[in-house]
Design brief:
By secondary structure, the protein is α+β, with helices and mostly antiparallel strands. It has one domain. It is 31% helix and 19% strand. The chain contains one helix and three strands. A three-stranded antiparallel beta sheet has the order 1-2-3, with no helix packed on it. The radius of gyration is 18 Å and the shape is elongated. The model has no long low-confidence stretch (mean pLDDT 85). The chain binds zinc ion. The site of zinc ion (ZN) has 8 residues, from loops.
């Protein structure tokens, strides 16, 4: 049985989903170009709030609020 198009389609869907995922998570720090990671405030009055912090922390202290 030859490898059908069905399998290729599934591989393609997987690939596209990965691309979308990659796009969603690719927030780059405007200061140093590192990836931004989702963090949660653990101290202060804003405890529990989510924000993006630079993965280069503490070298880079850039943060962005989650919209
Ligand atoms: Zn940074």
């Amino acid at each position: 049985m030859p490898i059908g198009d069905d399998r290729n389609d599934r591989e393609h869907v997987k690939y596209v989903q990965n691309v979308i995922k990659e796009k969603e998570s690719t927030n780059l720090c405007p200061k140093c170009g590192s990836k931004l990671v989702l963090r949660v405030v653990k101290q202060s009055v804003n405890e529990g709030n989510e924000f993006y912090g630079c993965s280069n922390y503490p070298k880079c202290r850039y943060t962005a609020t989650v919209i």
